[in-house]
């Protein structure tokens, strides 16, 4: 009997733990995620915290215990107080004045250790041709691919002198100006381009925020404190980079798109800074979980498209051409 009581208490403690962690994420704006690394880190695990709470609700329900109210209450509150990570949208609107954009961290067109694809660069070229977006934003681009995208005569790339990983904006429409942020003390970077589309000009930001530099092998090779310290520094750099981009974007008179590899989820301070009052294409028109990056058994949505325009559709791909997955959205330019 005592063993049974201890087991029930342990389960209740675990239940309360995941409830508290999920509540912390729900109140992140009031707590101040940007001041505490561990709170920002929690944002990556929201789907798993939700799943754990659902399982506890089912457990207490089967036991016919009122403790189910604990997790049920936080799940209901979280659903209405926060943007959901799972969407049921599956609509695709079409307008005469439509623009499509695709963002993809291509990992320098070199493939990834999980995928045995010797011709991955050709596969990426074929994939882009098949989707035929009007604008492509590549993170971790490669100069050797410059002649491979004949359908995109207009290009703006990270300047070679920057020392950063290469970002690229490829466009079917004329690029009339552009610039590079050249972040301090990092190889990550962001670029932007003003693109002329008929009588309008839009600004596109292609961002690759600070990377955590954590791979599956890091968990075995490195001391945990070193990993956490590096991630803490990465969150700080991401925040500064996001503020710089957002401040720059507010000074343009053109409507804009901000897309790329955020290296943070929608529950992060970094995302909130960049999003502001813009629309997230996945939250508007996505379906499912929208995950774009897999880390062992965990998946995250860190490749994001934000827009000032009305969003007609959003699509996630399972292309397996890089460690990231491509994302594409279409917009109504007149709304």
TrEMBL record:
InterPro entries membership: Endo/exonu/phosph_ase_sf, Endo/exonuclease/phosphatase, TDP2-like
Domain of life: Bacteria
SUPFAM superfamilies per the UniProt record, alphabetical: DNase I-like
Pfam families the record matches: Exo_endo_phos
Essential cofactor(s): Mg(2+); Mn(2+)
Annotated GO MF terms: endonuclease activity
This protein's UniProt keywords: DNA damage, DNA repair, Endonuclease, Hydrolase, Magnesium, Membrane, Metal-binding, Nuclease, Transmembrane, Transmembrane helix
Transmembrane segments: 12-31, 37-61, 68-86
Domain Endonuclease/exonuclease/phosphatase as annotated: residue spans: 103-324
Protein name: Endonuclease/exonuclease/phosphatase family protein
